[in-house]
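Intended use. Records like the one below are meant for learning the mapping from a protein sequence to its folded structure. Do not use them to infer anything beyond what is encoded.
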Amino acid sequence: MPRTIVLVHGAWVTPASWQPFRQRIEAAGHVVHTPSWPLIEGLDARTINAAVPAGFGALALGEIVDHLAAFIAALPEQPVLIGHSVGGLLIQLLLDRGLGSAGVALNPVPIGGIVPGPAALRAIAPIVLRREGWRRPYAFGRRRFGALYATGAPEALVDAAYAGYVIPAPGRIFHQVAAWQGNRIDPARRRQPLLITGSDRDRLVSPYLSRAAYRIQRRSPAPTDFVLLPGRSHLLIAEPGWEAVADLALAWIDEALARHVRPVPAAPVPPAWVPVLAG
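Structure written out for the chain above:
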């Protein structure tokens, strides 16, 4: 059935990062929105990189969530929320506020309570150890973007992504994530289904972090699922094979929302979509 779906982008990218993904979901008959973060609405990557808006480096998670919550409140119905990276964290915070009918967190940056592993600490250290890094934007160079964000993607794709939608990220949000400030959720009050993914080639959000988020979120009374996507990097929404990720999200949404309206069985049966789409 047609649904309203909101795609929430992560750090270091603009909403343009969703373009092919969005088109595939729209082709399936859904209404799709790709709201931006505060201070960069209506701006493309070239404009932002030429002059990062004042205050963007100090943008906080709560400000972004408030901005997205206002956008969602203006929609005619509660949408399904799909977020990637920091966007995956943001949609969990929105679900925690009671917004959205379901959520898909694609390789999400950690919610509060998760201790990062060595790989995550190495990735975040240059950001949080800078002088006054909590109020300064942090930009990836082309080489570091390819090595950490788009690991293994074809060079032509990395070049196109870097030129087309890669921007600096607010330093404050990474300080908040590291200190568990503004990224805490209470799984006991979530009533919407949630899917969390991880992928084994992701050097920013390792499968360990995705599984840790799942272990916290499965305390919710609502359906909560986890899928490991092998052979994919952090750029799983745009690198080769992204179509399978979009199709997985759509199949899970249909199955989870149908499952959500029925009583939860005493011995849950694994969803039919897992062996088909996660392999």
